[in-house]
Design a protein that fits this description.
Largest sheet: 7 strands, mixed
Strand content: 15-25%
CATH class: Alpha Beta
CATH topology: Rossmann fold
Helix content: 40-55%
CATH architecture: 3-Layer(aba) Sandwich
Strand order of the largest sheet: 3-2-1-4-5-7-6
Order of helices and strands: HHHEHEHEEHEHHEHHHE
Number of strands: 7
Radius of gyration: 18 Å
CATH superfamily: Vaccinia Virus protein VP39
Shape: globular
Number of domains: 1
Length: 280
């Protein structure tokens, strides 16, 4: 992940941040004193498979009110809010992009969850870990489709190990290479998704082991994610008229470009998706 948060804006998923408030206004929620974080997750989450993925985290980590979780690349804060709302754990949401971080803080306050969800801004690879609570301070580390933006997986996983308590759980959903990309795919992955130098399965496992993780589960999610991104694009195109009424054509075209790029990469069968669960 670049220290320059502007670089990541080449991925059009991270532009037009006001679309979240536009959607809240359309749903007549902008003036509400309280927004249900579960209902909000329909519009504020950028990961795949909805809240079922978050429910899997709660079960896997056996989260309770005394648990502390770090969400790396937390985006608008949807997963962090659902984690804390459902398990009552404390979640620290770390995001690199200032505008998305500010929107996440706003949404957390609207959900009355600012006592459980703590927002921080910064790059995990360069941030002083004392700003997050120090070494061995979290029971769990999660990340949903954010690690793909970070090229150096070894140092990244080392930081995750440092921040976890002994026995703590790492739960990550990420992209990886099934086979070498074509030149066009590599260009699209870098420009449209802001990801490059993705590891293979063997390289990822080696980084995890070198960082001190064990009980490693490398769960291939490629088939279901391919279906997911294909369906997402189809539904988005079908809903164009309604979407543009709320957000306008430029925002629609921006997201359409991103969704098309991701679908093309997955259907090209060189890009894979993975869920990693490992223990420190």
């Amino acid at each position: 992940m670049s220290d320059d948060a502007d670089d990541i804006k080449t991925a059009k998923l991270y532009t037009n941040v006001d679309r979240i408030k536009n959607e809240l206004e359309f749903r007549d929620l902008l003036k509400s004193e309280f927004i249900d974080p579960i209902a909000l997750s329909e519009i504020d989450s950028m990961h795949y498979m909805g809240n079922s993925a978050i429910e899997d985290v709660v079960k896997t980590m056996k989260l309770i009110s005394s648990s502390r979780v770090l969400d790396i690349g937390s985006g608008f804060g949807g997963p962090a809010r659902v984690l804390s709302a459902t398990s009552k754990c404390t979640t620290t949401a770390l995001e690199l992009q200032q505008d998305i971080h500010q929107m996440a803080e706003y949404l957390t306050k609207k959900c009355n969850l600012d006592n459980l969800v703590k927002h921080k801004i910064g790059n995990i690879n360069s941030l002083d870990l004392e700003n997050l609570g120090g070494l061995s301070s979290f029971d769990g580390v999660v990340s949903f489709l954010a690690f793909l933006h970070i090229t150096e997986k070894g140092p990244l996983l080392g930081r995750c190990a440092e921040i976890l308590k002994p026995g703590g759980i790492l739960f990550v959903e990420d992209f990886y290479l099934l086979s070498p990309l074509s030149a066009a795919e590599a260009k699209s992955l870098s420009r449209d998704v802001f990801a490059k130098d993705l590891p293979t399965r063997e390289e990822y496992l080696a980084h995890l082991e070198a960082s001190g993780f064990y009980n490693i589960q490398f769960i291939d999610k490629t088939p279901e994610w391919t279906i997911y991104v294909t369906d997402r694009l189809g539904k988005f195109i079908t809903n164009r008229c309604n979407f543009e009424k709320v957000h306008g054509e430029p925002t629609y075209l921006s997201l359409l470009h991103f969704y098309k790029a991701v679908m093309a990469l997955f259907t090209g069968k060189n890009l894979g998706g993975v869920r990693i669960i490992a223990q420190k």
